[in-house]
Design a protein that fits this description.
Elements lengths: L2 H9 L6 E3 L10 E13 L5 E12 L10 H15 L6 E6 L3 E8 L4 E4 L8 H4 L10 H8 L8
Parallel strand pairs: 1-6, 3-4
Antiparallel strand pairs: 2-3, 4-5, 5-6
Amino acid sequence: MKLSEIKKILTNLQELHFVLENGQQVPDHFHVTEVGQINKRFIDCGGVMRDEKAINFQLWFSTDNYHRLEAEKLKKIIALSEDKLGLEDVEIEVEYQQSTIGKFGLDFNGKEFVLTTKTTACLAQDACGIPQEKPRVKLSELQSASCAPGSGCC
């Protein structure tokens, strides 16, 4: 989800809730303790220079069970961050504390924001010598689809 998308959703949202993909709720008394832009410049394992940008939200909660961040307040935090930091309209990453700091993507399911799983990947598979996985095909389907009796194909 890009920054422009969350701003649009927040405009029509009454209550602000976050949930993990497995259904576990982020406690309603969470705080957004950071909004920023992360600029990452790196070289992949194939030697290609790369630049990535992401907007970072950090969610945190403590023992303040009565704290509730409202959608309008989050919109104001985002607006202040855009003004002071010059945020770009790029994908949002969310940091959320579990056994260690977890890094998540962000989606919306119509009523709450969903912290989505992120994975690592090799960005230069052609340069690493890692063989591409071949698609699995059932021989019975292959034979019936391409070689009929009397067709002269075999």
